[in-house]
Amino acid sequence: MAENTGDRTKTGIYGFDDLTLGGLPKNRCTLLRGNTGTGKTVFSIEYIYRGISLFNENGIYISFEESPEQIKKHARNLGWDLQKLENEGKLKIIDARSVWITSIEDESTESGLGHLLNRIKKEVKEINAKRIVIDTMYGLFVESKFVILIRRELHKILNSLSGMDCTSILTMGNIDHAPGIIDYTQVLEALVDCVIILEEKKKGVYPERKIKILKMRGYEHVAGFQPMVITPGGLSVFPLIPRLTKLIEKRNLKKDTSVYIDSPAFISCLTKKIPRGCNILIAGGVGTNSGNIARQILSDGLTRNESCLLINTHESSYFVEKFMKNFGVDFQKYIKNNKMFFFDDYVKNQTDDRIIKHAFSNPLILSYLMDKWLIDNEPENFRWCINSITTLLAMNDHIKYSSVDIQRFLYDKVRKIRSLRGIGIYTINKDAHPPNLINMIENMMDMVIELKLIEEKSVQHSYMRVCKARGVEANTSWHQYAVVGGQGVIMANDAYSAFKNSC
Ligand SMILES: Nc1ncnc2c1ncn2[C@@H]1O[C@H](COP(=O)(O)OP(=O)(O)OP(=O)(O)O)[C@@H](O)[C@H]1O
Ligand SMILES: [Mg+2]
User: Is 70 in the pocket of ligand 1 (CB under 6 A)?
Assistant: First the structure.
């Protein structure tokens, strides 16, 4: 189990501790602000849950809005068993729905603030809590004209919480205030050491979530809004934007003398050159070997010392490695040299395990993980391959993401390939989708290689052609090809005879 040392409290929320460059200010109060539905409660529950499960730091959850049962249900939907933690004496959920603001010195009223703070103190001692959440502060206040009173009481609450040697999170909604009425959110913001803002807006079909550290007294942090995703596994933050911008700027400054890369043997029959920054769509059907062709273009990059990322949406990397061995490509060798990387649904114990399992049903997560791969590896030259878009579309159609979301995801990736001068390879089963969708995806690409099978005298023949190649001279006629053990994809009739003989 990790330990929280120094003057920071690591939340354990994916990516958040990178955003704050170390965690929340220890034993201080943080305000988490956002409109309804932006994720305040998810964040708060996860902060407490990760504290206990990752750092052995017990927690108190004070709920002003939902009953303890609702909180536990909420957590169960996120995959966490709070009841078990409560039974083990690591967590206490306090129902504060009936508590109202009174002077904290007034401890006599059951529903008074003074009474509640005493209870928190007692519980903190009892379970040796290190984390406190108050969800939400709104529950504490009626809108008041008496700002001085509110300010004084808030100050006392914060002091009282800090005095308990706990790192606290207070949540607060954004409220429209009538003229002349005090906005105590601002008062709270001024009093706490750290303010986090959550935002959500609908763009396309899925909600686009963002998170920002508005202030963190005395500490450096990543600036500006950064992407955030909520999945059934919790919250994930991707503080990537500043580093991605830097990477793109750096790449754009670099004088690129070799505009064209060497092309793989079989592509060279179709086009003379493949330019850097090229996105290639391999559009085939069942049995056309689109996956093998895509992997061959990828592995061709490995032999040219490029970094490669292979995204297997429907196969385990273990099997893919085996297939490629049959074609004479040893992925293991490149994995060991940190040149070859896989994302798949099967790999266990990788750093991004916790969220990678959501990547194939959530295009935003896959998109951010691909960007993270770029930032973490800063490859000089690189290729990535998504095999296949069809699976992504199928998996997402059944959940809440639509093909529009996948198109947005692809468009983002295609643009990254262009601005960073990599090579993007994508496969699609064109028989599985409506023609207008195929058209949209083909439109985004710089090169489209079409595959088809033709049965002649009871024997199936495979053909490919380049049907689109932006900015390069291409031979657009059909070429016969075959996939041969030990050699991979080879063109022309001679190769095909070799394949037939080997059967
Ligand atoms: N188990 C889950 N799986 C996927 N998404 C979830 C899950 N639970 C919550 N969400 C998403 O998180 C969003 C934010 O929920 P949350 O309750 O944290 O908002 P909030 O900011 O606390 O809102 P309010 O101010 O109304 O209390 C939900 O609207 C939903 O879209
Ligand atoms: Mg809430």
Answer: no
Task: Give the closest residue (by CA) to ligand 1 atom 7.
Answer: 232
> Which atom in ligand 1 lies closest to the alpha carbon of residue 78?
1
Q: Which is the closest atom of ligand 1 to the Cα of 74?
A: 8
The answer to whether 488 and 327 have CB atoms below 8 angstroms apart is yes
d(CA 277, CA 470): 11
pLDDT in tens, 454-463: 988 888 889 9
Inter-residue contact 112 to 99 (CB < 8 Å)? yes
Residue 67 CA, ligand 2 centroid: distance in Å = 11
34 lines ligand 1 (CB under 6 A): yes
Residue of 223, 157, 169 lying closest to 28 (CA atoms) = 169
Which domains are present in the chain? 8-239 (3.40.50.300), 246-502 (3.40.50.300)
Identity of the amino acid at 330: D
Q: Whose CA is nearest to atom 25 of ligand 1?
A: 36
What CA–CA distance (Å, rounded) separates 448 from 284? 10
Q: Which residues pair with 424 in a beta bridge?
A: 279, 384
Is the per-residue pLDDT at 76 higher than 60? yes
